[in-house]
Design brief:
The strands form five sheets. This protein has a five-stranded parallel beta sheet with strand order 3-6-9-1-10. A two-stranded parallel ribbon has the order 2-11. The protein is built from 14 helices and 13 strands. The chain folds into two domains: 32-203, Rossmann fold; 228-328, Helicase, Ruva Protein, domain 3 (Orthogonal Bundle), CATH 1.10.8. It is 48% helix and 16% strand. The chain has 332 residues and is an alpha/beta fold.
Amino acid sequence: MSQYIDIESLNQQIAIESRFLDALREAHASVIVGQEAMMHRLLVGLLTKGHILLEGLPGLAKTLAIKTLASSIDAKFSRIQFTPDLLPADIIGTLIYNPADHQFAVRKGPIFANLILADEINRAPAKVQSALLEAMQERQVTIGKESFSLEEPFLVLATQNPIEQEGTYPLPEAQVDRFMMKVVVGYPEMEEERQILRRNLNDHFSVSLKPVIHSSDILKARQSVQKIYLDERIEKYILDIIFATRYPERYQLKNLKPLITFGGSPRASIFLALAAKANAFLNRRGFVIPEDVQTMTKDILRHRIGLSYEAEAEGIHQEEIISQILAKVEVP
């Protein structure tokens, strides 16, 4: 009974502490039509320190969604356009020699911001990608002999185009794992596109976004997400899903064994639990339910399952494997 009262009070607390989300959602809707799922994932990343990789065709508002989110928050924003001639120093900064006092001074790069848009990340060579991904993991940057911590909130939101192969440098699987989620952005519905069309043909339509929340609100919300109750049965459910990607035969999924070369790492378990908590927070709930886990599973796992040659030959994608796992693993 006491546990029920605790959960009830936690629900009320989360309902109060998540009110600021309304202002963010209104700001998003004033600029972007539809794409609620993408905005939802961006908020999950913001609430959990989870970097996000957005993959989708050109023109689907990936960059605009990130810029809209950044404009809605009173925080420092940097956009880095990745190109083949980009150098690591262009991202993290470098030492500049000052002839006046015969000393080197640190010039910080665009990575020193709260929200980083890494546009078309797969257009830069591996050395540049590694410089960014190291900063993402360590949350610090070393320039010369000095190390600099990156100020929180620190979030990297990267985009990539899935159809172009020429002039691109695909991210290695081990580095893609640094991203909490890989979000696939799809086409809008017809009615949504009708509204997009009308907005863009209307000369009088313009939106000037101002910050509606402060970065400190994000840091407080992250503490609230940590308070979300995660039952042991939900923990087991999360672990069963991840272990089913590694040992499908243990879950009566022998047909998946020849299709998977590697499954989710422990990082997948951690991120899935955090994402489920954030999803509960976004739904103004103080506890995690199985639907929270199911909602976030594909975004957490689609870049963490290695496909065999057999799977690729049969045209089987990670989403199909994840769907089979979710259908088979027992729900608490």
